[in-house]
Description:
Blueprint: H1 2-24, E1 28-34, H2 43-46, H3 56-66, H4 74-82, H5 86-92, E2 96-102, H6 108-117, H7 129-135, H8 145-150, E3 154-160, H9 168-183, H10 190-197, E4 216-220, E5 234-235, E6 238-239, H11 249-266, E7 271-276, H12 289-292, H13 300-325, E8 331-338, H14 363-366, E9 367-368, E10 370-375, E11 381-388, H15 392-399, H16 414-418, E12 428-434, E13 457-463, E14 466-471, E15 489-494, H17 510-524, H18 535-545
Parallel strand pairs: 1-7, 1-8, 2-11, 3-4, 3-7
Antiparallel strand pairs: 2-9, 2-10, 4-5, 5-6, 8-10, 12-13, 13-14, 14-15
Amino acid sequence: MKIKAKILLFLLFLIVQFSIFAEQNKMNVLLVMLDDIGPAWFPPYAKKLNPEDIEPVILENFKQSQGHNGIVDPKRHIEAAQNSMPFLDKMSKKGVVFDLCIATASLCAPSRAGLITGCFQQKWGGFDNKDIEHSGLQSPFLPLSINFKENGYATAIVGKWHLSKKDPKLKKETFKILNSQKKAGNSVNFQRTSIESGYFASTDPDENPLKLGFDRYYGFNAPGALYYEADCLWEDYKRVPKRPKEEFLTDHFNEKVIEFIDNSLKQKTPFFVYYAPMTLHGKMDKSPEKYRKNFNSGNKFTDQYAGHLLAVDKGLENIHETLVKYGQEDNTLILFSADNGQTAYAVPPYNAPYKGGKGTGWIGGLRVPLVIWGSTKIIPSSVSSVISLADLLPTALSFAGIPIPDHLDGKDWKPFLTGSSNKVPRSELFSTGLQSTRWSDGYELERNKKDSDRCPLYSWIMKERKILTYVSEVKKGLYKSLPNGRDTEVWFHNLSSDPKQKDNLILQNPETISLMRKKLNNWMKTLKEPLLNHKEDYKQLIHLTNQ
């Protein structure tokens, strides 16, 4: 019996040791999501650009807004972009660079909803920021952080969340303060008051990231924050006191990510970290001199813009050093992307070589960078096939050895990335959302900062870089240049030869267009109409694609 007992104990010891070994060797995952910036501003993409790739209207608009006596040198701007993130550039050579990664929306909140759930957020009516702020994430479309946590991962979100409803109690407190100010005859500023009360960046306790698969939460549930003296941050369920005057938010977030990773690896626990710095959203405060001084584009605004990116790059380098310390640099899948194209800042090279910006269905509004590295199983390459942001976390789950839920729209790219299959998992892609001028240049229409509730909707299907787009009607009185509005439109573009979508080929290839239209209509029928606005626009698109 003693011998049998010893054998059993030894076997139990081996099982425990194997379990610990397996846990230690699970693939870590770091998902980095920047804000409002297209691929043209990142070295792997900028190195392929020429000044002719930048749209003349973008250069002219930037001259008017930030041109310093009309001086804007496109070549020096491209050089700034080529040098904005040297560490990312270095890592991109060891990984995979996707040329045509498309966000699930050209706006912050719906794009992030599609990313974190692996599903098209339009399936629960999430077309606009307001839809997501109104509804939060809808079951069964929940964050895939839950799947990581259920499989033994330490999980954290650092930075911008913007995916939950806000705290209803703090809303009541905010309006009490506002009412008292009105009675006292004082001027009222809702945003400032909501920030001071904590409501602005709060989450409904039932929708806090800690209830959605995260062990730690450090950030804000709002479109943006301040780069200095940040006063709307939350840690788990508690509000963080106003940060010091000299502290740069990106550096602070970098430190928080490293702190979590370091603690996880000390405990030999695999981690999933969703890191969403605010770079480059909202009010463009100066980046610290230590970053800004590395650039000389001839334009101060451009140099500080590039400095913000260099701050993120330095954070990635410091994270890498932490991984090296624990021998995890080749066992940590890193996915680097952004939520949508660049905004009305329109800093050249903007979203070159494509047309459009944030808030639009033009490819420039939806195309985002995507660089994946950190696993020795990945074959370094450049991929021209279309991929969706919804594909990122299903792919990460696959690398981690975690089953991928059946209801996801996202595809698993691991077999392709590791060379076990030469077939791309996605041959076509669909998209629908706002065709607004609020957040970026409208080209044929003047910018209207209040058009988001009334602007048209677009819907398109892309296959082999050919894209068929339908746009609902422009309402009367919305734009000065179109006092009587405009009827619905249909476009067909070949992105390979016409990235700026100038030549409408709708009268060519009628059989191809008919097939694509039917597929688009079938996809549209799987969605729900927008939760708050644009219901009639959505019905128009259903009708147009059904003809």
